Amino acid sequence: MKEEDSFPICDKCAPESGSIFRYLNPAELELLNYRKDFRKFRRGSVLYREGSRISGFYCVHSGVIKVYKTGFDGKEQIIRFAKTGDIIAYRSVLSSEAACTTAKVIADSRVCFIPADILISFIKSNPVFAHELLKLACHELGEANTFITDIAQKTVRERLAEILLYLVRDFGLDDNDYLRISLTREEIANIIGTATESVIRLLSEFKNDGFVELQGRRIRILDTRALENISNLLV
Amino acid sequence: MKEEDSFPICDKCAPESGSIFRYLNPAELELLNYRKDFRKFRRGSVLYREGSRISGFYCVHSGVIKVYKTGFDGKEQIIRFAKTGDIIAYRSVLSSEAACTTAKVIADSRVCFIPADILISFIKSNPVFAHELLKLACHELGEANTFITDIAQKTVRERLAEILLYLVRDFGLDDNDYLRISLTREEIANIIGTATESVIRLLSEFKNDGFVELQGRRIRILDTRALENISNLLV
DNA sequence: CGGTACGTTGAGTCATATCAACCATAGTGG
DNA sequence: CCACTATGGTTGATATGACTCAACGTACCG
Q1: pLDDT tens, B61-83?
Q2: Under a CB-based contact definition with an 8 Å cutoff, are residues A130 and A123 in contact?
Q3: Chain A: nearest CA to B194, how far in angstroms?
Q4: Per residue in A4-13, pLDDT tens?
Q5: Domains detected in chain B
Q6: Residues A99-137, buried b or exposed e (16+ Cβ, 10 A)?
Q7: Is the pTM of this model over 0.85?
Q8: B7 to chain A, minimum CA–CA distance in Å?
């Protein structure tokens, strides 16, 4: 059996990936392993679509998934990225609402699909798990609020610098200081809420100023300090 | 004892106001009534400030409170309003983070302050309550995501029309179709993320087009349909 | 080798921010 | 009672950041 085909066992992968399931007890983990469904998705495939009813949620084992909303004119607004250990679609499952986002694979992914009912049952049976899930949701809410403020008040230039720093924080840099996530210019634009051309212009401005280096889609971060200054990040 | 001074009992006011506490059992409600602290605040007073550690959260009995973040240049970004039955600051309590917002009274308010530990204990003892709290947080998260998309993609004009409709939905109209919430132009600007002058200009544009009528701070909604068209609201 | 998706650059336009001046109202204190 | 002040509202002029449109370059892929 090739490594890629190995079926992940959550009582092993949960603590390693730091996922929310590390708060489950052995019996619950066993149930999770029994009920979950392991799936693979290639770049570009869609896990679920805005407006659809979802019968469960996903835990990301590997890969990167973008979660976005589609605006009035069809333009996508990226809300967040999910990577190893993150769960997605839990919001819709818990609030009993239709999905308010679409999830599309950016880097080939392996995920577990978990039926909605056992999430609910874990909440009922395991108060610590419920509390941690609440912490997770509340933390995301805090981040959303910060993002609202930024997008409402900052210039595109400031937001671009900020997003680059967030990507460094969340995905890290390789040995040559290249960002470990590969996004199209359009995707970057759809995070910070601007036009693709604006991202291109500002990125090459950053390049000319010596803050970054560009090799096609790869972005090398040369001067974090300068980006921090531009972004006017509080904290 | 004047009506205004009467101490609200949550097992009465919770079901009436539709607050989250309607999911507590009698014993828990008794504990809540015993531990909570009833407080009154005048317009302009601050319940808690961004960055502070909070030892509990608030349930609004009457009045209106604005919850906002302060941006880099000191400009406030209003995140939401809390009115009768709403709870605020629960996010910070649950995520064990410092407050990421400030809460300031817009219309004289009566609130209950509830110590953090009993919120945690309710989550542990009452799975239904925990689930409902999760629903609440997840619902707010969904609204935040929608707002991010709007603010990133819509014009100021569209956002202004949209916010007027939201205010109608959340606060209603009186017998003469006046909005039941009174905001300064600056506050409206701080919701939709624009300059005060822009709000003034667009509002008087709406007035000239016959969509609204303006009497100082009071806004009369004349043509909901037109506002819906302008706002490009999905739904 | 054509096709498709992505990246880049330039030119022109427009929505919105900024700056400045002025008015209206209400509360305050002498 | 009247200046005095503070706060909020309004309007106009001006500046500019960012978007749109359009053309073209590049790279990979079947």
Answers
A1: 999 999 999 998 889 999 999 99
A2: yes
A3: 7
A4: 456 677 777 7
A5: 10-150 (2.60.120.10), 154-231 (1.10.10.10)
A6: bbbbbbbbbebbbbbbbbebbbebbebbbebbbbbbbbb
A7: yes
A8: 30
